[in-house]
Specification:
Elements: E1 11-15, H1 19-25, H2 30-51, E2 55-62, H3 70-93, E3 96-101, H4 109-121, E4 128-136, H5 138-152, H6 158-164, E5 175-178, E6 197-200, H7 210-222, H8 231-234
Parallel strand pairs: 1-2, 1-5, 2-4, 3-4, 5-6
Helix pairs in contact: 1-2, 2-3, 3-4, 5-6
């Protein structure tokens, strides 16, 4: 467990990559990797709670994932419903507030109802804000924000767009982790990750454990976050979180 006096990122975002490859390496169906990935995510949530991280955002299902084989997509939807019934009571008891971020229109009524129920049940919690990006894409997020601002008649400015983004309820991520050895962010939080520190792990998501999270946090502590300033300007002030505009 991390020492409380040490700096930890306020908001951690994760691209959970490698479930399918984990299963394939073991001659298992890909859905078995996704099931293992749910267990890894539960472990990650507990680790964030223990380390004092305030916000966790994960990329669970991208808008491009609909292009995967029907059997895999169908299995993922069933796994989501099962995970909600199994995990939400534990998350609620631990003080976790759930937000599901993404376009829900393509989801079944059963899935939409499950998401809304989980959000309602955990709405009074404040220990950890847990954003699950499901049927989400960074380009979709920017487009929906622009549409929302335009329809309001407000001028389209950075501030207006920022307030209309799907993650406007939390500060931008301080640390963005991608597992699975790939070196890209794959349409995840394109707007919000402008000043995020990036960390790429070779571990497949089902293998990502507390030690791997601690390694990412340790690397984060070595980064100098200048936000456009010089080293001289920020020296002596430590790490900070990019504030949301008021």
């Amino acid at each position: 467990m991390a020492t409380p006096s040490l700096i930890v990122p306020h908001h951690v975002a994760i691209v959970m990559d490698g479930n399918g490859r984990w299963a394939t390496k073991r001659f298992l169906p890909r859905i078995a990797g996704h099931k293992q990935g749910v267990d890894s995510l539960s472990r990650c949530v507990r680790a964030c709670l223990e380390r004092g991280i305030a916000v966790l955002t994960v990329f669970a299902f991208s808008s491009e994932n609909w292009n995967r084989p029907f059997e895999e997509v169908s299995g993922l939807m069933e796994l989501l419903v099962l995970s909600l019934s199994r995990e939400v009571p534990n998350l609620n008891a631990s003080g976790v507030r759930l937000h599901f971020v993404g376009d829900r229109q393509r989801l079944s009524e059963k899935v939409q109802a499950g998401l809304a129920q989980a959000e309602h049940l955990t709405s009074g919690n404040h220990r950890l804000i847990f954003n699950v990006c499901f049927n989400y894409g960074g380009r979709w997020d920017i487009a929906q924000a622009a549409k929302k601002v335009a329809s309001s008649g407000e001028p389209i400015t950075e501030l207006a767009l920022d307030r209309a983004m799907a993650l406007a309820h939390v500060p931008d991520p301080d640390l963005l982790i991608r597992t699975g050895g790939e070196l890209r962010i794959s349409n995840f939080l394109l707007w919000q990750a402008a000043y995020s520190e990036l960390h790429f792990s070779d571990k497949l998501w089902p293998e990502f454990d507390e030690a791997a999270l601690d390694e990412a946090i340790a690397v984060f502590r070595t980064r100098e976050r200048r936000f456009g300033q010089t080293s001289a300007q920020v020296s002596g002030h430590g790490q900070k979180t990019t504030p949301k505009a008021a």
